[in-house]
Amino acid sequence: MAVLLALLALGIILLTGDLLLSLLAPKHGMSAGQMWPLAFVLGSGCVALLVFWLSFLAGKYALMITASLIPLFAAADLYRRAKAGRWAIPVLHLPDKKGLIVVVIAAGFLFVIFSAARTTSLGYDSIALWGIKAKIVFIEGGWSSVASYSGWLKKLNYPLLIPSQQAFIYGFMKRVDEQAVKIMFTAYFMALATFFYATVRLDYGRFLTLVFTALLVTTPLLTISGISGYADMPLMVFPLISAVLIQRWLKSDANTDLLLAGIVMALVIWVKREGSIFWIVAAIYIAVYVFVRADSRQIKTTIQKLVIFAGPALVIAGPWLLYLGLNDFPDTDFNSIGLVEFFANSSRIPTIVNYLIDEFFSIRSMGIVWILFAIVTIWRRRDLTRPGPLFLWIFTIIPLLLLNAAFVFTSWKPFTLHLDNAVDRLVMQVVPLAWLFVANGSRGLNQWLAEMVKKPTATESEEQMP
Fold first, then answer.
1. Secondary structure of residue 33 in the 3-state scheme
2. Of 79, 62, 426, nearest to 230 (Cα)?
3. Smaller CB count within 10 Å for the chain: N or C?
């Protein structure tokens, strides 16, 4: 019963995001496979923001009010669909024979992942960081009193999207059930796979799209994270969706794509602290791109585009950063970031680089993604002169380097203990982006496969002809 209630809560979040998507971008032009994962992350962000804001307006009633409003939003979306005659949801129509194979494979994969998630234990982060905060919010009804636990609760400076969403699901179940709530992470896993499949499918046939998606979802450490309750799985979904939206904007120059990218990128800051690095890299690239393209007559348009992307961060992430500043929570993982600290710990850099290189070649945890990434980078290096491929390459590599450079400032002793504990998960956060880059750069496979399939075999008489 708890699992069914958790599924109901996730469905309501999904419909809420669908309503938001219809309001923000009614003519988005995305396929169903891209639309529903995007709706899911928008709905997830809506839940977290409501719980956070209402905690300071309604105190202990924040979670209860959120649990009442979100179903109303979902009901409004169902009414909107019914009024528009859109009950036949695209992803639910009967597929053809080839499409049925994809559905069967996806259903089997979902069954395996869900079964594994139900039988495995929660990861440390989910128990000690996200899980305990979700329980406090569920019991006390909001975030307003969580700051009072700063004497013994670890890492209160970590963002709140995941624990808020967990608390929301607990509210539907009327009790804490850590195993049932893991279905939330399975949902993020499926959103990742679905969005990736739908994106690659725009350029490939079903077979090659399934191959690339299978390579993504069977990346060893990614699969483990998807069923363990770590927040790294949600963190992978938000940047992937943002990257595709920004690539769409680079082609279309449509403000709706840029706005959606700005919202999803602002929400990534709410998932984990590492999300701010992804936002900074994307913001710098967009700023450079629009200023390079602009002339003196387009200054107003240039500023407008920057505001469209950066504005959501001020509204979504701004209150959270202000909350951190007012409470001054101690950072138990890192020392203050500055030049003095950097030069004092610069001797760590060779060790960090060695750890990073080991991860690149670790088939056991990363599969072959980084080997293929390097090959495609060299093979299709001319593609990097175009804005879309260049952005995806930068959005993969620069956050990866910056995330690992943070170990220069770690307060763990010895610092290698922090590397052993986290470097593989930091590398994994950009693995979906790396696989998308590999897929985008391997378009020659389409023509090769088509020629191999369609090429007629020569008959004996033809072979004997001079």
1. helix
2. 426
3. C
